[in-house]
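Intended use. Records like the one below are meant for learning the mapping from a protein sequence to its folded structure. Do not use them to infer anything beyond what is encoded.
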Amino acid sequence: MRVFVLSIFNVVTQTLRLIAWDRSIPSAGASLLGGFLQGATGRIAVIASGAATNVLLARALGPMDRGDFALALFVFALTTAMVSFGAAEASVRLLGLRQWASQDVFVTSIWLGVVSGFVGAVGLAVIPALVAPDSFPSYATLLLAAGVLPTVINLHLRHQFLGWGRVGLFTLGAVADAVSLLVCLAVVGLTGNMNTTTAALAVVCASLLSLLTHGWLAYGAGQALRGVWQAAIARKSVGIGAALVTASLAGLLTQRIVLFVLHAERGSAEVGEFVVAQAIPALLASIATLYAVVVYSRASASADNLEVRELTYSALRQSMLIGFIASLPVALAPRLLIVAIFGEPYAQAAMTLVVLTFATLISGAGNILFNALAGRGHEKVAYGSALLSTGVIVATATLLTPATGGVGAAFANVAGASAGTVYAYLRFRDALRDSPNEPVAVHINSN
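Structure written out for the chain above:
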């Protein structure tokens, strides 16, 4: 019953999230604190949804299975991102250029999804079993491989809706993904047989149910497969997509690589505890993210580096103050907090939670600095920081994890976040002088 109630709660919060998503980015003219509060309104549902999902899986699976499933889901998400290669998002831009018929873009995008999804499914089914057969739950990984193809096709269909200007259909597609997964997980939870294999089966069933919904929405919009495949569209999609996905993949690997080091040294149970300990800092990270969005939008519109510098320092002060206040419960009673939310099996993750919270405050400052630089046309700083952070995290985790487990992995995050933030600050100090510059029109993913 607890799993069912949490699932229903997550359905509601996901729906609220989708209603509020286009209101979550504050305008460039808003005040710094006002922009943060405006953005926070749209992020409340995001925070509630992510928290409910973590609680549901943590309580239903336990530390051991939660760790195994977290690794399997990470590989599933990474595979989906790699094989889609940003081509779905690129199709939105191609539709806006109006160089090709929308039906041809539609058909080409769907075929790209079919081909890339099939390649990803085969790769996920074969490569983990060959490279690291003992690192993943075999049945769960095989089942998730079956969900790659429909998931990639859903991604392409949903971005077609957005490219047509049908924001309502785009939103309904995202609702279909969220509700399908939660319904399937709720059914599995009510049977009392939740484990890594049945949870993976729920993911596959949800992706197929969502595919049916996406297809129905596309048919209802009058888009039949009347177009033709065009190689030029495919090449353009992949070319644009490569630029869109490279930074995201680098960030994903930087954030998650420590899980593999921890699993290799200490096993699945500590991975599960570590993943659960990440949930609360992930909520705190949204504070800096909202400030970063405001800084980016205003830095892009400003013609004065001095103004941008002062704005960035103000954002750093305010976000750090709010983050410090929000993290006080973690600092004062970490064990009580984590047991109250996730249960007694995760009590040993209390110190890991404290260290990860500290890492989150540091990385939040780096996020604000990155967005200020990107707003002035220095977005490539993020690539250098990702490489530096990854190297520091891997080296530190390799040294500390064998003896200290999740706490050592958390300190590796602190070291990586510190290195990336210091690098960003040095670049920020050099790039933003007192002299005014012309505004630079660039766009980045502020998340």
